[in-house]
Amino acid sequence: MDTSIFAALAEPSRLRIIELLREGPLTVGAIAIQTGLRQPQASKHLRVLSDAGLVEVQRDANKRYYKLRQEPFLEMEAWLESCRRVWDERFDRLDHYLKELQGKD
Amino acid sequence: MDTSIFAALAEPSRLRIIELLREGPLTVGAIAIQTGLRQPQASKHLRVLSDAGLVEVQRDANKRYYKLRQEPFLEMEAWLESCRRVWDERFDRLDHYLKELQGKD
DNA sequence: TTATAATATTCCCTTTACGGTATATTCCCT
DNA sequence: AGGGAATATACCGTAAAGGGAATATTATAA
C-alpha cells in the first residue's frame, strides 16, 4: 500500500476536492471557487493529488478538467479488505484457540 | 470523513504497524522490534494511531497490547463506497447525457 | 502578434512532523 | 521500600508541508 495516497487525502482541502470530484470532472477554477481556495493553492493541491495518482487531467482548450482515477480507490478497498479479517468471526475463534494453547505451557 | 485517519496512515512506519496488527494484538516492544523502530518512536506512532481512533490499548501488567479498532475501517469503507458511484455505469451515462445537453446551447 | 483567460510554478515565510536522546512513569517482584 | 522491565513523555534540532503573492506558461481570440 502506497502511503502517498493517504498523505494526499490527509489534507482537508484535498479531501474536499476529492469529494467534489465524486460529482464529476471539474476545472481548476471551479474547484477553487467551490473550496474557497485561491487558484494557485488549488493547482498545487491538484498536483499532489495527481502525483499520488488519485486524479487525472483532461485538457479542453486552456481549461483542464480534473477527474477521479479508479485505481487507487480499488487499491484502498483491497487493503481494507486485508484488514477486515481481523474482525472475522472465524479468525477471532482461532485467535482464542491459539491463546489457550499458549496458556497451557 | 476525518482527515486525521488518513494523516495517521500516511506515515510508512505507522502503516506498517497497522499491517502488523492485522495478525492480532501486539505489545509496544514487539512492534518496535518488528518495525525496527526504537521504543520511543514506536510509542509516539502508536499515540498518533490511538488519537486517530485506529487502535486501542489493552493493559496487562506493565505491558500494553495494541489492537485495531473496527470503526475507522468501516468509516473508510463507507467513504470509498460514496466515491464508487463515479464509475457506476449508469452515472457515466447520465454524465454523457448532461454533456450532450450542454453542447446544444 | 497582442491582449486576455485559465492554469502552473516559483519564492518566501511560518508551522508542523519526525527522529534522537534523555527522562519520567507505571507495574511487577523480592 | 527498592530494583528492573515496559512504556510514555519532554526537549531539541532538522526537514518537509502549506499558505500568500508574484510570475511564468499555454491557449484563445481579435
UniProtKB/TrEMBL annotation, chains A, B:
CDD domains reported for this sequence: HTH_ARSR (cd00090)
Key words, A-Z: DNA-binding, Transcription, Transcription regulation
Superkingdom assignment: Bacteria
MF GO annotations: DNA binding; DNA-binding transcription factor activity
Cross-referenced SUPFAM superfamilies: Winged helix' DNA-binding domain
PROSITE patterns: HTH_ARSR_2
Name under which the protein is recorded: Transcriptional regulator, ArsR family
Source organism of the structure: Paenibacillus aquistagni
